[in-house]
Specification:
It contains eight helices and 20 strands. By secondary structure, the chain is of the alpha+beta class. The structure holds adenosine-5'-triphosphate.
Length: about 375
């Protein structure tokens, strides 16, 4: 089977429920073999419905879903051969690790030697070989979780679908599990879709993230690209903590010199100039834009420094090695992260300036200008 036919592909997939609600709206998404794609977005944006349509638990109203080269729109779940897990289930306490792993395979009607071979492969990937004969109560927490993962991947489906798989785990286990799961999935060479509302989980587990809002896929990109080039204002504000500052501004003019474009903006009653992407030069002077500046892209400068915004410190929030400053200026709240060694007290006036090359400009429709 060629690589292109092992992928999962959604083309213009729409789900309209009988009550008229469009839960998923013309979703386009391709998940390659060995790739982990996380569906990320606020509650109700259509993540689970998308996953359920791939699994065959919901039928798409429009569009095409293909799995391993076959259009599956009209196939019931049992004929799609996908593995869907809602979480990593608890183990059967009276069964050994080996028998826990074998359990999902009995339902497939495999013979004993085929079952043993699958268990051997999964045990190798998850490093469970030395504990196959143990009972769950003889295992450490991490081992139990590895067996639970093993249970959900022991079959040989065409793709893996997980819905909030780590949501029931305690925070420490969640951290170790997400890196472990990523490693395991990479070895299995199948397309994987994971639904999560936890962006840290998505950023650590995904090769690519599909950010959804109100049924639409707003952007599909690697974690790094989502962070450094958010396609629009929604993604910019959704990805990254503390949240990106998004401030309305007017573009005054642009100038190009030696391949570098500089723009002057009017915002919060002040005028600043900053290095921008070349595309900003194509906007007309006077255009309304939104400027996006990550809290760590601001630097504190002394009052009166050119191109700085001037604001008053409203709140100082300790964050370990850093502090988060909440600044107010002209009715706007700005967030700025600085090292904890920096002296900052509530009520004092400070200057903040965006570090070079770290300003995002969104046009009047909220689309990133590049
Ligand atoms: P959450 O993170 O809260 O699980 P989600 O992003 O997974 O949210 P979905 O569960 O896919 O969102 O729901 C998308 C929208 O579709 C929501 O408005 C939800 O209320 C609606 N919805 C889901 N199932 C049905 C249904 N069977 N009938 C009508 N509306 C539904």
């Amino acid at each position: 089977m060629s690589e292109s036919t092992t992928e999962v592909r959604l083309s213009k997939v729409t789900k309209r429920f009988p009550n008229g609600l469009v839960a998923v709206d013309k979703a386009d998404l391709t998940i390659a073999a060995g790739e982990v794609v996380c569906l990320l977005g606020p509650s109700g944006c259509g993540k689970t419905t998308t996953l359920r349509m791939i699994a065959g638990l919901e039928f798409a109203t429009e569009g095409d879903i293909t799995i391993a080269g076959r259009r599956v729109n009209d196939l019931p779940a049992r004929e799609r051969n996908v593995a869907m897990a809602f979480q990593f289930y608890a183990l059967y306490p009276s069964l050994t690790v080996e028998d826990n792993l074998a359990y999902p395979l009995h339902a497939e009607g495999l013979n004993r030697s085929a079952i043993n071979e699958r268990i051997r492969q999964v045990a190798k990937v998850l490093e469970l070989e030395s504990i196959l004969k143990r009972l769950p109560h003889q295992l450490g927490e991490g081992e139990k979780q590895r067996v639970a993962v093993g249970r959900s991947i022991v079959r040989t489906p065409t793709c893996f679908l997980f819905d909030e798989p780590l949501s029931r785990l305690d925070i420490q286990l969640r951290q170790t599990m997400r890196t472990q799961i990523k490693e395991v999935l990479a070895k299995l060479d199948k397309p994987t879709v994971i639904v999560t509302h936890d962006q840290i989980e998505a950023l650590t587990m995904a090769d690519r993230i599909a950010v959804m809002r109100a049924g639409r896929i707003e952007q599909v990109a690697s974690p790094h690209d989502l962070f450094s080039r958010p396609a629009n204002v929604f993604v910019a504000g959704f990805i990254g903590t503390p949240q990106m500052n998004l401030v309305g501004a007017t573009l005054l003019d642009t100038a190009a010199s030696g391949g570098v474009v500089t723009a002057r903006f009017h915002l919060l009653g002040e005028t600043i100039s900053a290095q921008v992407e070349a595309g900003v030069a194509h906007l007309s002077n006077g255009s309304k834009v939104t400027l996006g500046i990550r809290p760590r892209s601001f630097e504190l400068v002394s009052s009166g420094t050119s191109d700085a915004l001037h604001a008053t410190i409203d709140l100082v929030e300790p964050m370990g090695a850093e502090v988060l400053l909440h600044l107010v200026e002209a009715d706007a709240d700005l967030r700025c992260v600085v090292p904890h060694t920096m002296k900052a007290s509530v009520g004092s006036k400070v200057g903040v300036r965006c570090k070079p090359g770290q300003l995002h400009v969104f046009n009047e429709s909220g689309i990133l200008v590049q």
